[in-house]
Design goal:
Elements: H1 2-7, H2 13-29, H3 33-43, E1 61-64, E2 71-73, H4 74-81, E3 96-99, H5 105-110, E4 114-117, E5 120-123, H6 124-182
Antiparallel strand pairs: 1-2, 1-3, 4-5
Bound molecules: zinc ion (ZN) (2 copies).
One zinc ion binds near residues 49, 52, 72 and 73.
Length: about 180
């Protein structure tokens, strides 16, 4: 899923911001919190709470790790925990990533083309390229592992059949030997 996002990465900055929101949700789901927070901080200027629709720039937010598309302000998150949100809106048993308030004045210092990941600031393009490589590699490794497992399963299947055949033939021979002995 991450890979397909990178493959379909939009050219326009507005759409790219939305893609950062999706990335943030996916990273939080795979417990890559640093990248989830970094991605969120790129998209946060446009986001609003999904329950009260208040703007979420420069406030603490709660990103649901299960819903993949639910982010709430602190107040609505508290309401969720005390069963005051409509039941179709997420679930209080879900795990949340708490993303601390981001000081948007940092944008003015670092510029739009940069991203802050933990304590380092790097060009957004380099960050994305790195993730692309990382996730492609990971998915290729998974694909390779699967192919190896399948090859192993096939090999043991062939060995199993050979052993079975050998077993049957040796039984036949035993039978033949016994038949001769009985004569
Ligand atoms: Zn809210
Ligand atoms: Zn949820």
């Amino acid at each position: 899923m991450l890979r397909s996002i990178f493959e379909k990465w939009p050219d326009s900055e507005v759409e790219a911001r939305e893609s950062h929101t999706v990335l943030s949700c996916l990273f939080s789901a795979v417990e890559d919190n640093d990248n989830a927070i970094a991605a969120w901080n790129v998209s946060s200027r446009r986001a609003s709470c999904q329950s009260c629709f208040e703007s979420l720039s420069d406030v603490t937010i709660f990103l649901c790790k299960q819903c993949l598309a639910v982010w709430l302000c602190t107040d609505c998150h508290s309401s969720l925990l005390s069963d005051d949100l409509p039941p179709e809106m997420c679930n209080k048993k879900h795990n949340f990533l708490e993303i601390p308030e981001y000081d948007s004045s940092e944008w003015e210092e670092t510029g739009d083309a940069m991203i802050k990941v933990r304590d380092s600031i790097l060009p957004r393009k380099d960050w994305l390229d790195g993730l692309r490589v990382q996730w492609n590699v990971t998915e290729e490794q998974l694909a390779r592992k699967k192919a190896e497992e399948e090859a192993e399963a096939r090999a043991s299947d062939i060995i199993g059949r050979r052993v079975g055949k050998w077993w049957k033939e040796s039984r036949k021979q035993d039978g033949a030997v016994q038949a001769t002995n009985n004569n």
